[in-house]
Design a protein that fits this description.
Blueprint: E1 7-10, E2 14-19, E3 22-27, E4 32-36, H1 38-46, E5 51-52, H2 53-63, H3 68-84, E6 88-91
Antiparallel strand pairs: 1-5, 1-6, 2-3, 3-4
């Protein structure tokens, strides 16, 4: 499970492209394409360099009108999905 203290970065085995504000990601190891909506694309752009979950959340809260609790839930769900698909690396994850 991804925690707020974790450091997130996009995996190296992928390429991505911006398409009208959305992102398309090709995972090179599987040849599978993934799509992200505008908010997902903003997150994807942020994690091209290492960022903590907290830094990502703060950037999203500044850019979009969303309640902090909803942002937290949606962000963690997206990051867990991206991790499960091998599209991101989670570093320094704290195990409780």
């Amino acid at each position: 499970m991804v925690k707020n203290e974790a450091v997130i970065v996009a995996a190296k085995e992928q390429i991505s492209s911006d398409l009208a504000g959305e992102s398309v990601i090709l995972q090179l190891s599987t040849g599978i394409y993934y799509g992200l909506n505008q908010v997902g694309a903003s997150i994807w752009n942020l994690i091209q360099e290492s960022k903590t979950v907290e830094e990502i959340k703060n950037a999203i809260l500044e850019e979009y009108e969303v309640e902090p609790e909803q942002c937290d839930r949606d962000l963690l769900a997206l990051l867990q999905e991206l991790e499960a698909k091998g599209l991101i690396e989670v570093k320094n994850e704290v195990v409780v």
